[in-house]
Amino acid sequence: MIYNDEYETMPREALEAIQLRRLQQTVERVYNTVPFYRKKFDEAGVRPEDIKSLDDLKRLPFTTKQDLRDNYPFGLFAVPMSQIVRIHASSGTTGKPTVVGYTRRDIKTWSELMARALAAAGVSQNDIIHNAYGYGLFTGGLGVHYGAETLGASVIPVSGGNTKRQITIMKDFRPTVLTCTPSYSLHLWEVAQEMGVDFKRDLAIRVGIFGAEPWSERMRQEIEDKLGIDAIDIYGLSEVLGPGVAVECIEAKDGLHIFEDHFIPEIIDPETGEVLPYGETGELVLTTITKEGIPLIRYRTRDISALYKEPCKCGRTMVRMARVTGRTDDMLIVRGVNVFPSQIESVLMQHEEVAPHYVIIVDRQKALDVLEVQVEVTERLFSDEVRKLQELERRIEKDIKETLGISCKVKLVEPKTIERSMGKAKRVIDKRQI
Amino acid sequence: MKVIQISIFLENRAGRLAEVTKTLASANINIRALSLADTSDFGILRLIVDDTEKAFKVLRENGFTVGKTEVIAVEVPDRPGGLAAIMDILAKENINVEYMYAFVQQSGKGAVILFRINELDRAIDVLTKNGVAVLPGEKVYKL
Question: Which of A63, A243, A263, B38 would staple A236 via disulfide (CB 3.0–4.6 Å)?
Fold first, then answer.
């Protein structure tokens, strides 16, 4: 189902005209209200009136998470505090948290985009939504909540944790939609099993909308098979909005439609900052074009994706982004392919026989780059059959190839043999002599 | 009727095997039988020892990846065709052997074959019914 037919299926030309107008207004506004942007634009020698076409977007400087931290907490807000009605923040695992503020209109926009996302997943006002995203500073819980109410569905604000009670609620209240992180959905399934509750037989959930962490096609298969539901990928980040920036449609489940009447996406080469053409993999950069509280110009998400503009069978004209497979931190280039350790990590996380301790070794043999991933086995799942361990190596190699598009060699090593370091782990050894 | 075998995951690097045997020696543990399966990257050392629990504990304490696996020990007459007769029984029952290894008893009564089989209970049942001597663990550890 399409929630906002007018915008979601708008011809590209009309959509791009709206984008340009909104971009110009945003650039004008941040230049005049946020000293940070004025300084950056001046340094780059670009003025608001230079933005004459969407193509001119690339003349504007990037904004990074560090910029948000440097202006902690409210330095990038573009409106006085009296107009801010809500504040969220991301967890600051590697420094200060990043803080975002929403005006009344921002909350309305967010609610509509989340309602669109739910509708794209096949949810309607007849559904009951079990919302197990955390409520609080994290945008997941409240984001889905407001979208559900805007759509007119019934929402159970169960939040995260207390998994057994969640199963009981799902059994008794009979929600039809589950919203949480993909890994938590599998945890719910496991706990349900322990309680003798079968998702397919005893619960009414038919669709799940999962996000807030990278996951894979393989994990989708697992979730769909175990829970007996359709599993839909949703994308968002608190700096830009929260959940509801992009979502898959249930018709295709092939790429996430970005709500382009509110955001302009770009894919860039994370090394050079150069804008890449459609279809190429790189870092997703988002510009908000309607946000009032904290507009972001060319925000570097650090998420790896690609953009596709082929029409989708659901009828939406909005561009699709590929499922996020990793982060740009610590990027490597192997045989011309960008490889991100976090992509390899996300593959390893799907195999419980190995520990998330790994090291990537890149070497050059006869002018050819070779990639080896050494990973520690876990004692818990140790098999004494050579064949099974070799099968495990091949399985991980195959998954890495599917994720990265590059072949590698996986080598199992003994536990605790990979060097641990305090702080950031050393994941990559580059032996190439170039 | 099952025998507990200790399995150790070993990376292929010089001296690693020596570290295992040294660890067992200093704990005064005697090795009854062993087999080493290897690939280009890693090996798995399988051991039958006189004190399984103690061996498991000291190896683990010394940082080895140790597993315990149930195997069965079968006494085979030390003459041509001795093993063939047993393999024939398993084949007829369609029981698949994952791996096996053998050692000869000091007393010279016969050979002992250790089998790793997924359908362990059925194999014990079939072999016993066919008059094959399946040795209990206690006996094997003390051989």
Answer: A243
Residues counted in chain A: 434
Number of domains in chain A: 2
Which of A372, A378, A384, A413 is the best residue to mutate to test the B interface, defined by the most B CB atoms within 10 Å of its own CB?
Answer: A384
Residue A23 in 3-state DSSP?
helix
Contact A94, A69 (CB under 8 A): no
* Rounded Cα gap, residues B26 and A357, in angstroms: 31
B65 Cβ under 8 Å from any chain A Cβ: yes
Q: Are residues A388 and A302 in the same domain?
A: no
Q: Strand, coil or helix: what is B43?
A: strand
User: Domain check: are A235 and A339 in the same one?
Assistant: no
Whether residue A295 is found in the same domain as residue A321:
yes
Quick check: B64 and A414 CB within 8 A?
yes
The residue range of the domain holding A377 is 332-430
C-beta of residue A166 within 8 angstroms of C-beta of residue A187: no
- Enter the pTM of the model: 0.68
3-state helix, strand, coil in chain A (%, to 5): 35, 25, 40
The residue type found at A18 is I
A149-177 exposure pattern, b = at least 16 Cβ within 10 A, e = fewer: ebbebebbebbbeebeebbebbeeeebbb
Q: Residue B102: which CATH number?
A: 3.30.70.260
